[in-house]
Design brief:
The protein has 363 residues and is of the alpha/beta class. The protein is built from 15 helices and 9 strands. Helix content is 44%, strand content 12%. The chain is globular, with a radius of gyration of 19 Å. InterPro entries: Aldolase_TIM (IPR013785), rSAM (IPR007197), rSAM_sf (IPR058240).
Length: 363
């Protein structure tokens, strides 16, 4: 990637792509189409705000990942949140309040951040935080959920506030999903999807792909099944190793190329669905987008981290503004030091170079 790579232009084009294709996917849903028309105007304004900050020497990303709780009602095999002690069965300690999250959302709006991914733990355990998100129609909030806590109150909330979009985690078929997430989880999340579909509410699916399961997740029969369920968005999430023993599961270049090629096909075939991959094509984006290049992470206690899979922090939003967080020593060292642009064999570059990340904290 050359020195003339413009990260803000890349991010702006990414936002435009998401909004444009989301509008195509919701043409038959008047409420959603109306919201997206309004959101597209907000997104253009946000792009201008980010560029203004860029001109002042502050790089603002498009995405914020907000892990709003350390609690979860499931024990999924290979969960990096539990492996990193970011999720547990203990009563949460010192987690951010609903008001504090509301302040973060407001700061994000003022900085031009267009998307805030609500994650956990299980984020739907924090109805107070999700309710705060309704106050910011300028921001789109994908809510990554295991689908087991849907109820009538949430359905009404999602109907009134189209900037909240549940994304249900599914591993494939019933056997694969229950094998990783627990017996009976598949039937619960399918029921939640069915409730959303009957209410004509937009929702999506999140699938985690590895070296071993990608073939089954990109097959026509699985995608068509999601389509019939009513999914309008499908996120392909690259598996991140939780330890050295699981490194071999991480996708390599071959799997990434296979996914990119298949996504082109799926986007042509399913014109009213939106297909996204995370972290995406690092060759196109000039490297990893963590540490504020394209996104950053705030954990449930307020620690600002490069990425959910890289749980290192030198600053907390309880003591600093989001702008100060993005200009923190750790984030700037990662962005400016070339580590995010480094080649890696598979999985996450920050996982592969975690010793170097830890040294940055000690410097």
């Amino acid at each position: 990637m050359g020195d003339d790579f413009d990260i803000q232009e890349y991010l702006a084009e990414g936002v435009e792509y998401i909004v444009k294709n989301a509008m195509k996917a919701t043409l038959r849903n008047p409420k959603e189409s109306l919201f997206l028309l309004r959101f597209s105007k907000h997104a253009k304004k946000a792009t201008e705000i980010r560029q203004d900050y860029e001109d002042m020497g502050h790089h603002i990303p498009v995405f914020l990942i907000a892990s709003v709780t350390s609690s979860c009602n499931l024990h999924c095999t290979g969960c990096y949140s539990r492996a990193n002690d970011a999720c547990s069965d203990e009563t949460p300690q010192n987690q951010l309040t609903g008001d504090e999250w509301g302040d973060i959302f407001n700061q994000a709006k003022e900085l031009g951040i267009s998307f805030i991914v609500i994650a956990g733990g299980e984020p739907m355990l924090r109805e107070d935080v999700i309710t705060r998100a309704t106050q910011f129609p300028e921001i789109l909030f994908p809510i990554f959920t295991n689908g087991t806590i849907m109820n009538e109150d949430y359905l009404k909330l999602f109907d009134r506030n189209r900037n909240l979009v549940p994304i249900f985690s599914i591993e494939g078929d019933e056997a694969d999903t229950d094998s990783r997430r627990g017996e009976g989880v598949y039937s619960q999340l399918i029921k939640s999807m069915d409730l959303m579909k009957k209410k004509d509410l937009i929702f999506g699916a999140s699938v985690t792909f590895t070296r071993g399961n990608l073939d089954s997740l990109i097959r026509d029969d699985f995608i068509n099944y999601l389509y019939e369920l009513g999914c309008k968005v499908v996120f392909f999430i690259e598996y991140v190793p939780v330890n050295q023993e699981t490194v071999d599961l991480a996708p390599g270049d071959e799997e990434r190329e296979m996914l990119l090629e298949r996504l082109d096909y799926l986007r042509e075939k399913y014109m009213d669905m939106l297909f996204l991959s995370f972290p995406g094509d690092e060759k196109t984006s000039g490297g990893c987008l963590a540490a504020g290049r394209g996104f950053f992470h705030i954990n449930s206690q307020g620690g600002a981290e490069p990425c959910p899979a890289s749980p290192y922090s030198d600053i907390n939003v309880k003591d600093a503004s989001l702008l100060e967080v993005l200009d923190s020593k750790l984030f700037k060292s990662l962005r400016d030091g070339g580590l995010l642009l480094d080649d890696h064999e598979g999985g996450c570059v920050l996982f592969q170079h975690k010793d170097e990340v830890e040294r940055l904290l000690d410097d």
